[in-house]
Amino acid sequence: MTILLFVLLALLFLIGVPIAVALGMASSLVFLVDGQVSLIVLMQRMFNSVASFPLLAIPFFILAGKLMENGGISRRLIHLANVLFGRVTGGLAIVSIIACAFFAAISGSAAATTAAVGSLLIPAMVKKGYDKSFSTAVQAAGGTIGVMIPPSVPLVLYGVTAGVSISSLFIAGILPGILVVVSLLILVYVISLKKGYGGGERFTVIDFFKAFADAILAILMPVIILGGIYGGIFTPTEAAVVAVVYGLIVGIFIYKEIKFRDLIEIFSSSVVVSAVIMFIIAGASIFGYYLTRARVPREITEVMLGVTDNWIIALLIINVLLLFVGTFLETSAAIIILTPILVPIVSALGIDLVHFGIIMIFNLAIGFITPPVGINLFVAANIAGTKFESLVKAIIPFIIVMILDIIIISFIPQISLFLGTFMK
Predict the structure, then answer these.
(1) Which of 124, 203, 244, 385 would you call most buried, defined as having the most Cβ atoms within 10 angstroms of its Cβ?
(2) How far is the CA of 386 from the CAs of 75, 112, 124, 227, in angstroms?
(3) Which residues contact 47 (CB under 8 A, 6 or more apart)?
(4) Residuewise pLDDT in 10s, the chain (424 residues)
(5) Is the distance from CB of 96 to CB of 142 less than 8 angstroms?
(6) How far is the C-alpha of 352 from the C-alpha of 413, rounded, in Å?
(7) Is 323 within 8 Å of 366 (Cβ atoms)?
(8) DSSP assignment letter at 87
(9) In this structure, what are the phi and psi dihedrals at residue 87, rounded to the nearest 5 degrees?
(10) Is the Cβ–Cβ distance between 140 and 395 less than 8 Å?
């Protein structure tokens, strides 16, 4: 039956059936053939899987990101970053990475970060003489930071699926996220130096204070969200609601860049994205239910431990698996499918589940920039008006650097766990 399940799933993926439908359909057919579980029970499990208070954070963080994108906050953050870093070699590329880090601390989405920052900076880089493929690759890679630096929608999904504190995951993601940002900054500087990409215009101290004053409300948003979570004032779900209210007030009444008529499009697009994720969760819930009944995670754990009980070798194998899966499978589905399988393995090896959550999300984040499914590549290519194929060569250095970051994060757990230990 387990073989039948995976064969059905592979066939449905190959013929282009949506991931959520494929997961639900394959699992339901196997249960139907098995005949031991009523389909009514499966429906109940699907509904119960999305009836979770922590999961409410997902639609609210998605909505908050949309409000930031449309409310002028992303533009102000980019301007501030440009005033600070635009004059150095490769200034606009550096500004792109810095702006992605700023926006990541608000949106929690890789595609949203790529679109919000890229729509402004990719044309600016091309106009300044940067190679179009390089400009687009910089933005696509920078967009992955959206799911690394908290708040992060994939971290929420992992936390709910693995039964791990979302607040602890958010804290654990800060230093690894900064590591990735710094490594990408070094990479774009070296490439810009090699290709002769100069800096932008010089800004005065007065320009800085003007830009800072204009962006102060944008800067305060992640401070309020993350400070409230880590200070124990509200939960991550409540923080997402606070972010939405803050975004509405700033966008409508202070910056005045969101009109009431714009809210229909903002809310509807947020609903569509949220519904897709929730549908995947519902379909994957019965897939996970079958795996649990069939004791697949336990058997895989026994096989893995039979191969090696060395956590270093096992973690290398898991990293390769996650990189491979992230290349072909949508991130939300990969988290929900693999977490129940991998958590027993890493637990048996004594690996901290918070640390493993960071490893998993950072591995899968690379999937946003790897062909053939790299969503960030498609988004950035669409903004730049270039072909997807032309980005493959340009994105390779970014993938290599991020893989090196993952190796460092994987085998130096303190990078993920230090702040959590320090804040206890």
Answers:
(1) 244
(2) 23, 19, 15, 40
(3) 282
(4) 778 888 888 888 788 888 788 888 888 888 888 878 788 888 888 888 888 888 888 888 888 888 887 888 878 888 888 888 878 888 889 989 998 898 887 777 888 888 888 888 898 888 888 999 999 999 999 999 989 998 888 999 999 989 999 989 999 999 999 999 999 999 999 999 999 887 666 777 888 899 899 889 888 888 888 788 878 888 888 888 998 999 899 889 998 889 999 999 999 988 988 888 888 888 888 887 888 788 777 787 788 778 777 888 989 999 998 998 888 777 888 898 889 889 988 998 899 999 999 999 999 999 999 877 788 888 888 888 888 778 888 999 999 999 999 999 999 999 999 988 876 5
(5) yes
(6) 8
(7) yes
(8) T
(9) -80, -20
(10) yes
* Residue 224 dihedral angles phi and psi, to the nearest 5°: -65, -45
Q: Identify whether the C-beta of residue 46 lies closer than 8 Å to the C-beta of residue 37.
A: no
Residues 6+ positions from 92 with CB-CB distance below 8 Å: 82, 86, 121, 124, 125, 128, 130, 197, 200
**251/254 Cα distance (integer angstroms):** 6
Tell me the helices (H) and strands (E) count for the chain, helix number first: 21, 0
3-state secondary structure of 313: helix
Spatial separation of the C-alpha atoms in residues 21 and 23, rounded to whole Å:
6
Peptide bond into 151 cis (omega under 30): yes
Measured on CA atoms in the order 362, 373, 101, 224, is the torsion positive or negative? negative
Cα 100 from chain centre = 12
Look up residue 131 and give its two tokens.
Answer: 């190679």
Token readout for 323 is 């990189």
Phi and psi torsions of 163, nearest 5°: 70, 35
Burial group, residue 26, by CB count within 10 angstroms (0-12, 13-18, 19+): buried
- Cα(133)–Cα(393) distance, rounded to whole angstroms? 9
C-alpha Rg value of the chain to the nearest Å: 22
